[in-house]
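Need a sequence for this fold. Nothing fancy.
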């Protein structure tokens, strides 16, 4: 996987090979942050599970009322 910043000139931010060896295996390839001017300020490979994020309604925003933008109370 290669990540390049293209503006104003091409700059390689990350270049590495990742292997996932079975169905359901997930790896975080890269996490990066930009400042307000678009400068890369942090690059990490710290794992973050997309499956866990999307299954958790509080993390994925599924508990926010789309009309009001207010978080709905938890059902116990």
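Here you go.
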């Amino acid at each position: 996987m290669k990540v390049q910043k293209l503006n104003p000139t091409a700059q390689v931010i990350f270049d590495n090979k990742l292997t996932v060896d079975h169905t359901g295996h997930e790896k975080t390839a890269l996490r990066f942050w930009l400042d307000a001017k678009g400068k890369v300020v942090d690059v990490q490979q710290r794992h973050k599970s997309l499956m866990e994020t999307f299954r958790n309604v509080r993390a994925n925003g599924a508990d926010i009322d789309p009309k009001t933008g207010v978080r709905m109370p938890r059902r116990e």
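For context: The chain has a mean pLDDT of 80.
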